[in-house]
Predict the 3D structure of the following.
Amino acid sequence: MSQESHAADAGTYITHHLQNLTLCKADGHWVWNECHGNFWAINVDSMFFSLVLGLTFALLFGSVARKASRGVPSKTQAAIELVVEFVDQSVKDTFHGKSDVIAPLGLTLFVWVFFMNLMDLIPVDFLPLAAKLGGIEHLRVVPTTDVNVTFAMSISVFILIIFYSIKAKGFGGFARELTLQPFNHPVAIPFNFVLEGVALLAKPISLSLRLFGNLYAGELIFLLIALLGYWQLPLHFAWAVFHILIIVLQAFIFMMLTIVYLSLAHEHH
């Protein structure tokens, strides 16, 4: 095989694996995988795995909470208690307001993002090949490699930032923060508004793109390793061991930044 044909095959392989299972309406009919440029296209695989993993989190933690005992805990209960205590302590150290929602929100974000990131450790051809046998041509199994998922999560956090800012300071106080900082003078209001508006919008953008970029890069490296033939297995294992750190770290960063942003929303400047 020539170098050009090998490169073409590699490019086709990577492109195929980076394409979502999409559904959209075109010419009055619902079509699959023909949604390029269609804003209303639905990435069915991202939605499916996000919901399944979210439901798994809810059922697992709910089941352990109902069966929790004060005696010697099971290994699953002990692991979940460690996660809950870790998140609770992180909230206590970072969040300076009073809210019964922040700790459950932090726990949900940390575990849910961790579960979605964890899908990246499944061999890249395993689930797509199984789906192809069932007639599904494209399948991406890591929801956080879909920028639509990470943006949806960050926009939800952004809405909470706006809500708690107005709740804690009132609409007038929130407006004053956008217009009278950093220069407390009426002449500087337009400049302040632009500056503070950019800083406010940068929060959800950076929150989503950081998670997406790191997991997308990890997925791409797994795809490149899959092209290396006999070297695939040892390299996959080596990268997977290192990638575990990224999986946990990105879930932690997403949770912590959310807590920090909501803490800032409660503070009066």
Q: What stands out?
A: The longest helix spans residues 189-226. Residues 52-266 form one domain. The chain has one domain: 52-266. The CA atoms of residues 129 and 135 lie 10 Å apart.
